[in-house]
Amino acid sequence: MEYLGLTLALFGAALAAALSGIGSAIGIGIAGGSAAGVMTEDPNKFASCLILQALPGTQGIYGLLITFFVLNKLGLLGGGAAVALNWNQGLQIFAACMPIAIVGWISAIYQGKTSAASIQMISKKPEAMGKAIILPAMVETYAVLALLTSILMLMGVQL
Prior knowledge:
By secondary structure, the protein is mainly α. The protein has a single domain (4-156), classed as Four Helix Bundle (Hemerythrin (Met), subunit A), CATH 1.20.120.610. Helix content is 81%, strand content 0%. The chain contains 5 helices and no strands. It has helices at 4-41, 46-54, 58-73, 87-124, 129-156. Helix 1 (4-41) packs antiparallel against helix 2, helix 3 (58-73) packs parallel to helix 5 and helix 4 (87-124) packs antiparallel against helix 5 (129-156). The protein is elongated and about 60 Å long. The model has no long low-confidence stretch (mean pLDDT 96).
C-alpha cells in the first residue's frame, strides 16, 4: 500500500507513452503503405510522401513528453528517489495521463488513414500538397488539445 500512489503515477506515464506510441506506429504504417504504392509509380514523390507519413508520429512524441513531465514531477529524472505520493495523488497523475494516452492512440490511427488518403491525392495532383497536409493536420488538432489537457491536469496535482 506504501507504493500505490507511485505505482499509479508510473502506470499512467507508461500508458501515455505506450498507447500514443502504438497509435503512431499504426498510423505511420498505414500512411507508409500508401506512400510505398505511390513511390513505386513515381519515386520523385518521396519527400512529399515522407512528410505526410511522418505526421501521425507526433502523437507518440506527445505521449513521451507527458511521460517526461510525470517523471520530472516525481523527481525521477535526475536519478534521485521519488517523492512520496499517497494513492489519491497517484490517481490524479494517472488520470492526467489519460487524455494523451487515449486521444493520442486513436487520433494517430485516424491521422494515418487521412495521411494515406492525402498521399493518394498528391499521387494524382502533386500541386495540391498544401491541401494534402491540411487534411491530416485537422486530426492533429485533437491530439494537441489532449496534450494541453494532460499538461494542465498535471500542473494541478499538488505533491
